[in-house]
Every structure is written in C-alpha cells, then in structure tokens.
UniProtKB/TrEMBL annotation:
This is Permease. It is a multi-pass membrane protein. Pfam families: AI-2E_transport. Its main location: membrane. It is found in: Cell membrane.
Amino acid sequence: MKIKIRQRHWSLAIVAFLLYLLIHYWPVIAKLFHSVFSAAVPLLIGCVIAYIVNLLLKQYEHGYTKIFKGHRRAQKFKRPVAIVLAYLSIIIIIAVVLAIVVPQLISCIKLLLANHSRVINKFITAIQQNSDLNAIFGNFHPSQIKWNQIGKYIATGFGGTLKMVASTASSVASVLATTVIAIFFSIYLLIYKEKLGRQCTRVLKTYLPKFYDKTMYVIRTFDDSYSSYIVGQCKDACLLGIACFIGMAVLRLPYASMIGAVTAITALIPIIGAILGASVGVVIIFAISPIKAGIFLIFIILLQQLDNRVTYPLVVGKSIGLPSVWVFAAVIIGGGIYGILGMMFTVPLFAAIYKLIANDVDRRQTA
C-alpha cells in the first residue's frame, strides 16, 4: 500500500514539475511549436489533398478492378493508373472552370471600366468648367514647387515599390514551393496508404491496446462524416451550378456560364456560399441592366429555396446528420477561427462529434 502511495506521489510531483516548466518556459515552447507547425504546413496540406483525391482514387480503383478482372499483370498497375486519373480529373475540372470564368470575367471588367470611364470624363469636365478651381490653378506657379521634397518622395516611393515587388515575389515563390511539396507528399501517401495504415494500427495495438477499438471507432466516424460531406457538397454544387446556367440561359441573362460556375464554387461554402454567389451575380449583371439584375435576384432566390428543400436533402440526405442549429454554430465558430476554410472544416467536425455523443448517450441509456 505504501508503494502505491509513493508511486502516486511521484507521478503527481512529475506532473507538477512538467506544468511548472510549461508555464515558465511557455514563450520558448510556443515559439518552438510555431516553428514546427510552419515547417509542417506543406505536409498537412498534402494530407488534406491526399484525403480528397483518395475519394476519387477509390472509384477509379473499383472500376479498374472490374475492367481488368482476372488479369494479374494488369492489377499491378491499378494504383499508378488510378492516381494519374484522379489527379488528371481534378486538373481538368480546374482548367474547365478557368476556361469558362476567365474570358467572361475579362469582358465584364472591360465593360465596367468602359462605363466608369464615362463617369471619370464627366468628373474631369466638371472640374474644368469650375471657375473657382481654375482660379486656384491659375495662381499656382511652378517656382512654388519644392523639388527636393518631391525627389525624396519619389525615391522613397520607388524603394517602397521595389520592396513590395520583392516581398510579393517571395510570397509567390513560397506558395509555389509549398504547393509542389504538398502535391508530392500527397502522392506518396496515396501510394503507400495501406502500408502506413498497417503501421499506425500496429502502433495503436502495441501502445494503446485497451483503447484500440474505441480509437478506430472514432476515426471511422470522422472519416464517414468528412467523406460524406465532401462528396455530397460537390454533387449538390455541380447540380446547383448547372441549374443556374440553364435557368439564366432560358431567361436570357448575361454571363450565364461564368455566374453558373461561380455559383457552383461558392455553393461549397455552407450557409453563406449561396449568398456570396448571388451577390457576385447581382453586381455583375447590374452593371449591364438593373432590370435583369432584379430578374436574376428573384431567380437565384427561388433556385436556392428549391435546392435547400429538395435537391440538398436528396443528394446529401442525412449523411451528415447534423441539425441546422448546429450547422449554423459550426459555420460561425469556423469562420471566426479560420475564415471560409474554417467553415468548411468545422461542419463535418461538429457532425462527427454530434454523432459520437448521440451514440454514446443512446448506449448509456439502453445499458
């Protein structure tokens, strides 16, 4: 009994000492964690990319197995072929969206600039016709200009511009390097995903044998929640974008293909995505015709109501299983933490936690 008490006291003393070190050296520890996290960002992004691509990879592998059933040599190339097809599919989708959006976006910007140039010309004419302003500029003489100060300002501004250009170039290079590392790491994860899964399983069984079943249950629940959310949101976004394009084409509204693509992309964002898509469409069409902008606003409201009440429940169904009030809470919290990406991440996170708690409550009540 004395040995147990001593062991308990020793463990409490060690925990207290570790807490003291953590509090006393917190700035150093926080800086170390920040450095490690910054270095691991490309790997974390690679994990996210691998998880999303893996959803397509499974479908391609399933189809490849059916096509080459009974061919042992062909089965050896199943993983490389499926990986190439999965990444190629994503690249094609991005290229098609850019091909649709960019040309019409350029023409829209040209139109907006043309309309604003008329306003600018009217403003210049008004200044030229103003007698008070002409009197001020008439009394102004070039000898009053302080050329030394202007020279210093130009030199400072030029140096600041060079610094801004260098900073922008550095940021672009950093983003490109992070993207390349993340993509290569995601490919590595997809190639060796079974091996990595077996290694993680062995570690859990070795060090946490009592918690292995519960840990795997939690992991499967989170995996089901995120995979269902991603697949469901993508299907619903595609249907909403196609319906928006068809409806705008029937109503003869301008920029139907571009606004349809933008609506599909913004529909991936829960709750506020529909509002963002509608706002972009209204602003763009309003520059051409306010009446058509009003027609589009009525059309997009009706389309979103149809999607919320019919399409979304049928496509996504109850796969997420999260009540609307908790979806709203997840969006607010996720947006406050990390913006749009936070919104997209916290909704399935809340859904998984909600499912775990609900199942545990049911189990305890029936026990």
